Amino acid sequence: MTYTSIKFILFVLATALLYFVIPWKKYRWTVLLAASAIFYCLASYKYAVFILFTALSTMLIGLWLDKVTRKSKALLKSKKAEWDREQKKAFKNKLKIKKRWIMALCLILNFGILAFLKYYNFFAGSLNDLLGSMRIDFSAPTLKLFLPLGISFYTFQSMGYIVDVYREKVKPQTNPFKFLLFVSFFPQIIQGPISNYTQLGHQLFEGHDFNFTQFKYGSQLILWGFFKKLVIADRAVVAINAVTATPQGYNKYSGTTLTFIILLYAFQLYTDFSGGIDISRGVAQLFGIDLIDNFKRPYFSKSINEYWRRWHISLGAWMKDYIFNPLAISSAFLNASKKMRGTKFGKTKAGAHIAKVLPTAFASLIVFLIVGIWHGANYKYVAFGVWNGGIIMLSILMQPLFDAVTDKLHINRNNFFFRLFQMVRTFIVVLVGYVFDVAPSFQQGMMTIGRFFTDQDFERGSHEIFKLGINWKDYILLAVCVVVIWAVSMIQEKHSDTTIREMLDKKPFILRWLVFFFLIMAVIIFGIYGSGYAASDFVYMQF
Which positions ≥6 away from 198 have C-beta within 8 Å? Predict the structure, then answer.
């Protein structure tokens, strides 16, 4: 039962009907829980034990943290008159260490499961290669492991919750069934967005009355997601898969074809991922629940830093809150910055700037290394993370130089052509990172970059491109769709304070329904269907 199947549509409508029919609003969340359990078991019933373990362990450890916090505060209050300042400080430090160990237990348990299932065979293979090169007679066993549906998304969401409980930003949930709903909410289980408890929890549990406008907007967003996924992404991926099907086959293509495939992948990835998120957000909106927007026209970004603020926003926010900020203000990074300031180089203008931004720069590199590893157990994803993190780190360290050059050349930063140059430059940087997504291995990724400059054969490439499983009519349709996506994105960029759906509501009735009619017809007529279609075709299903 995939997001783009008739079964899923009927399932959602049946769930919505039951949800709004129940007269007791405060119990409507049970319908969402039942629907989430059914959806998960239909897709991955053999592995449901993992999501149950994450939900139960996280909730119980959250309650443990809260109990320790309340008891300690009560004791501190009772000893307020007896203890001096140093005693209070020592007690608070001891409490902080204890709470950190409790939180660490939850993080190690759940991230440990994720790491083992996702990366064990990768590290075992790397170890075997290393030992083999040293002629050591030992071989770590490889295991037939699996990835439960949505394990990265529900693990990250749950671990964000436990950190927030540790920080006392949220009160722990005491109802295990409500917490299980927060972890397993079916519209977001396949590919997010990753929500925090403060934003999502109360929306799931409070119960909502039927709202025609919300239901209409949700349906329109689902339709837009279907258009992106079925008409665009699933058509483009045919050509991409034809090139990347085998490592041996990948090597035979010209640099022109590989360049084209990387460009096509940028479009396919965006429409696949953002289309899936649109469906997730649209389904949630049917029930009156707002999931956060995960994309804000990322290809309009004028820097790689801005790109990552617009792309996979929920993951970026999670990384910022729980990895980047703690690293950037950690004593180790701050001390390193302080030591640099005390050096001869640190007293220069350039050195003072580098010392100031050093914690931010290194924290960014580490975060993107983690993002790269999160994408998959392969050295090419490590390269993906290092490339993006390295560019961001360099841009932070070199910002004064870039500003000085811009000023020296008397460039108006608000000039249209300069902003266009920035967008094109950023897009090219993004495309280089995508090379490591597309290429079967790190070595072939480096080969691809080399062929960009040494193997541009347009005549050969034009022949190869039309032998990738789709014909010239498909390419024309994709080109038209690029224009449609670009036009819609331009309107959204210009009117960021509202949505296309709200803008359409203000248009004449005939115009509104013509837009929806043509969108529905496009999905029905041009959508990619077939017996081989499966939910795993969503790019981020594997996460």
Answer: 164, 169, 170
Q: How far apart are CA 20 and CA 291, in angstroms?
A: 19
Q: Report yes or no: 539 and 269 within 8 Å, Cβ to Cβ.
A: yes
- 251: three-class secondary structure by DSSP: coil
Q: What is the pTM of this model?
A: 0.91
- Burial of 536 by CB count in 10 Å (0-12 exposed, 13-18 middle, 19+ buried)? exposed
Instruction: Please tell me whether the peptide bond between 326 and the residue prior to it is cis, using omega within 30 degrees of 0.
Output: no
Burial (CB count <10 Å: 0-12, 13-18, 19+), residue 445: buried
Place of tokens 């209050």: 77
Crossing angle (nearest 10°) for helices 85-133 and 151-166: 160
Residue partners of 507: CB distance under 8 A and separation at least 6: none
Cβ neighbours of 133 (radius 10 Å) = 8
For the chain, the C-alpha Rg in angstroms (whole number) is 26
Q: Which amino acid is at 273?
A: F
Scored b (16 or more CB within 10 A) or e, 176-196 reads eebbbbbbbbbbbbbbbbbbb
pLDDT band at 540 (very low <50, low <70, confident <90, very high): low
Cα-Cα-Cα-Cα torsion 356, 362, 363, 367, nearest 10 degrees, comes to: 150
DSSP helix/strand/coil, 31:
helix
Find the mean pLDDT for residues 24-36.
95
By residue count, the chain amounts to 543
